[in-house]
Amino acid sequence: MTTKGHDNLGLETPRCSFCGRTSDQVQIMITGPEVNICDECVEASGRIIQRNLSQRKSFNLKQFPNPREIKTRLDEYVIGQNEAKRALSVAVYNHYKRITQESAGTDVEIEKSNIMLVGPTGTGKTLLAQTLARFLQVPFTIADATVLTEAGYVGEDVENILVRLLRAANYDVPAAEMGIIYIDEIDKIARRDANTSITRDVSGEGVQQAMLKLLEGTIAAVPPEGGRKHPEQKLININTRNILFIVGGSFDGLEKIIEHRLSSSSMGFGATPEKQEQSRFELLQKIEYYDLIRYGLIPELIGRLPVITALDELTEDALRDILLNPRNALTRQFIELLKLDGIELSFTDKALTAIVKLAKKRKTGARALRSIMEATLRDSMFELPGDKSVKRVTIDHKVVEGKGKPLVERRQQSGGKTRQLKKRTG
């Protein structure tokens, strides 16, 4: 690009070598022997440098949080699941400690420990991974295993997961190479049975095979914009050796496989049968390598996911805590939304109980809470914003159950004084 332009009189004017603007189009133009740069490009470059430096500084082990500190931060956003949080905190700490150890050039080679989270839907698997990445300030992306296929088939290549991570890192390859990838619904790509099939399973076993190298560590060449590769396309090389992979799935029916194994092992002469029925969580806590093979995961994939931890189904008490206690609690979110319109929002104790009981019936964990809250507040959030007379709206159990209307307190000017009017909207 030329470093000079011409003004209306034909005189040469400096032109920015990066954006192409001339000196009369910007506030400041810094000129050099062969290159010019404007103040706006300098500012943009500074932001990029600062962001990349801050990301790389976060991997200094002396400043890196220890497992107890990681769990404490997870506790602020994720209710319950203490065993899963402990296992995740240790695994993540050891993963980034391993990266620092490798850069120190020691003789001992520490293998990567990717993580598998097993538990019902809505128990916080995705939230755990998101919170980790945000807290550690590393690039993070989520992929759905159900849309992945082998290379060459209709669908999304497994390597396209890396393109998403690269975008999350603003195309900073070194930062992306130390990021976190969460792959959801991993149980949905299990083989139909544990026996090898002679037919091609491009979205099941084929995807598992394609994931092996990424999980273990390889240099993958990916197109910067995703999609299929072609010979004339420019590719970016990404080393996955230090990328932490977390996979999650509900694994419906896995507890029956575990229960069958346990009952089979308790049969025979001198055996003591189990006297009481165990919960799904108690069974998942006893998960072993062979249970996942029987479920349909290939042994090679399981071997690359050495840290396996189970999440428990949320109780009513846990659901209530999710409504009230995390830093981003749902009640706080909706209170803040109406506060921006100058309206106070409150919930009665019975309203919170009704929300929790309804969410428990839906059997979708914490995800049900938001949909119930949205439905409960929809009319109020449609009608009340813009009405300057509204001071406070109160939600009780009848509103949650669809049998009543919210209680609204209004300000009304009468004789120069403000008096409170309480009225059911609707």
Account of the 3D structure:
The protein is α/β, with parallel strands linked by helices and 426 residues long. The protein is 40% helix and 17% strand. It has helices at 39-57, 67-77, 82-103, 125-136, 160-168, 173-176, 205-216, 254-265, 280-284, 289-295, 299-303, 316-324, 330-339, 349-362, 367-383, 397-400, and strands at 4-6, 12-14, 29-31, 36-38, 115-118, 140-144, 148-149, 156-157, 180-184, 219-222, 236-239, 244-249, 307-310, 344-347, 390-395, 407-414, 417-424. A five-stranded parallel sheet has the order 6-9-12-5-13, sandwiched between helices. A four-stranded mixed sheet has the order 14-15-16-17. The chain has a two-stranded antiparallel ribbon with strand order 1-2. Strand 3 and strand 4 form a beta hairpin. The longest helix is centred in the first third of the chain and has 22 residues, at 82-103. The chain is flat. Residues 6-10, 194-202 and 416-421 have low confidence and may be disordered.
SSE inventory with pairings:
Blueprint (H helix, E strand, L loop, with lengths): L3 E3 L5 E3 L14 E3 L4 E3 H19 L9 H11 L4 H22 L11 E4 L6 H12 L3 E5 L3 E2 L6 E2 L2 H9 L4 H4 L3 E5 L20 H12 L2 E4 L13 E4 L4 E6 L4 H12 L14 H5 L4 H7 L3 H5 L3 E4 L5 H9 L5 H10 L4 E4 L1 H14 L4 H17 L6 E6 L1 H4 L6 E8 L2 E8 L2
Parallel strand pairs: 5-12, 5-13, 6-9, 7-8, 9-12, 14-15
Antiparallel strand pairs: 1-2, 3-4, 10-11, 15-16, 16-17
